[in-house]
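Action item from last week, closing it out:
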Amino acid sequence: MTENEKDMQTNGQATNGENEKSRPAEDMSNSSNASNESGEAGELEKKEQEINELRDKYLRLQAEFDNYRKRTAKEKVELLQTAGKEVILSLLDVLDDSDRALKQLENTTDIEAVKDGVKLVFNKLKNTLQAKGLKPMESLDTPFDPDLHDAITEIPAPTPEQSGKVVDVLQPGYYLNDKLIRHAKVIVGK
């Protein structure tokens, strides 16, 4: 071997040695990159799993709310269909009394007995409705209130104190459980 060849071989070995020394560092950086990538991949899988869990919770919650909405709508329809049942049942007694009074009208010549019978049926109807929360509105001689009264007409007030007040009630107003259900039709003094 010539000296040049020996130098090259020596230089090559040195170069190879340097390469070998630098390779482990590259291998380390490659392995750390690989561990970073596997760590990121694991983290990504965890995030995807969290997203899937949240999506599942959201879909279940949406389904529960939809079921709740349907159930309450059904209950509301059922309530509206049977809301008047209790009132109707309580009025059946009044209807029965009215039928009996009508039969007595055909056979009776005593007007006082007929009046008493009609008064009894009327009082029973009135008491039954009051027990269900119906309350008549007191309007006569009160100041006119457009939230409570419907003015049919205005007439000259019989006295100066009755100006702007209700002087006659054509149709009474009613409250049901303290809520206005019918305005009173009145005549107002001016």
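Closing note: Strands lie at 134-136, 149-155, 166-171, 174-176, 179-182, 184-189.
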